[in-house]
Specification:
Strands 1-2-4-3 form a four-stranded mixed β-sheet, sandwiched between helices. A hairpin with a 7-residue loop joins β3 and β4. 47% of the residues are buried. The protein starts with a helix and ends in a 57-residue tail after the last helix. The protein contains ten helices and four strands. The protein is mostly helical.
Length: 339
């Protein structure tokens, strides 16, 4: 089903790309656009993830230079039954994260330094579980391809005036140029929004199942949304076609749950997670026991999460909430490069 969905999306974006070419240069422009679209399809499949990581200046990390962060991703990947993805760190004060890659075997997850500094261990785990849910659902290929195409169509629209000035090649004249400049990028944006918004709720639900506590993710979304509102992300502002990849829209002025938002309203996502927490606390059984990066000793209680903290007693009427301890301030724990 995911393969069919991706193929249909590629066909739709290719047709839109060719339509822009026809508006600019007639049949000749359409053929050129077809060749460009074919090249973009191939490039997107094999290299779009690398391009997205490069645009965000992401640095790959491991258990040596980011032990806590890496251990959380590793344990959650095991919990979800996924291969260990490549793990990246983005040097940005805005708390945010995204996943990319053409399949689970070639996936990558990235978190900002702001996320690791501002969120608790539990909240970081919930965010990374959300990103692993995108990997598990194979959303990463679709969303990365859409980002590449949306950027290419927007760029083509920006150059429409210069490329479409010759009336001999442009059967629609100024109207065609105007449509290419305004309508085509807008249509690409609509496709981009539709792809992203429908996947965020599912990734929230599955991410909450992976980490076992919906309220951890609800708390994280609230903190990330407030942080993204106050703290700019220059890399995302320069490349707005990537906005839908992030767990929360990194651009300013995109907070309404409307047709023109790349993400559902954070309040609606939090409400859905709170309802999920109530259902899990009242009647739903807990998810499978999570695995800690370091197995506990025989005389120690079983760990409740990838950070290796003792499990709290069951509280069916009150689902567990994140601890208030800030990330990276445990004097006895390992330190990452963000500390």
């Amino acid at each position: 089903m995911n393969t069919i969905r991706t193929a249909m999306l590629l066909a739709a974006m290719t047709a839109l790309f060719m339509g822009v070419g026809f508006l600019i240069g007639g049949s000749g422009g359409m053929m050129i656009a077809l060749v460009i679209a074919a090249g973009t399809n191939l490039f997107s499949y094999w290299n779009a993830d690398k391009m997205v990581l490069s645009m965000n200046h992401a640095l790959e990390v491991d258990e040596k230079n980011a032990p806590e962060y890496y251990a959380i991703v590793q344990a959650l990947a095991q919990q979800a039954g996924l291969p260990m993805p490549k793990t990246y760190l983005i040097d940005s004060p805005q708390p945010n994260a995204f996943a990319t890659g053409r399949n689970p075997q070639n996936a990558a997850v990235a978190a900002s330094t702001g996320l690791l500094q501002r969120l608790t261990h539990e909240e970081v785990a919930a965010v990374m579980a959300h990103e692993l849910a995108h990997v598990q659902h194979r959303d990463t290929l679709t969303m990365t391809i859409v980002a590449t195409f949306a950027g290419a169509i927007s760029m083509l629209g920006n150059f429409a005036f210069f490329l479409g000035g010759n009336r001999d090649n442009n059967p629609f004249g100024f109207v065609g140029v105007l449509a290419a400049m305004i309508v085509a990028p807008f249509a690409a944006m609509i496709v981009q929004m539709a792809v992203s918004r429908t996947r965020e709720y599912e990734a929230d639900r599955r991410g909450a199942e992976i980490c076992g506590h919906p309220l951890w993710l609800a708390s994280a979304l609230d903190k990330i949304a407030r942080g993204a509102e106050r703290i700019p992300n220059p890399d995302a502002e320069r490349n707005p076609a990537m906005a839908h990849l992030f767990i929360i829209n990194p651009l300013h002025g995109e907070r309404m749950d409307s047709l023109f938002s790349t993400h559902p309203a954070t309040e609606n996502r939090i409400a859905a997670l709170q309802e999920m927490a109530r259902q899990m606390g009242d009647s739903a059984p807990r998810t499978a026991e999570r695995k800690a990066p370091v197995p506990p000793q025989a005389d120690e209680p079983q760990s409740a999460g990838p950070w290796g903290k003792p499990a709290a007693p069951e509280q069916p009427a009150e689902p567990a909430r994140p601890n208030s301890n800030p990330w990276g301030r445990n004097p006895t724990g390992p330190k990452g490069r963000w500390s």
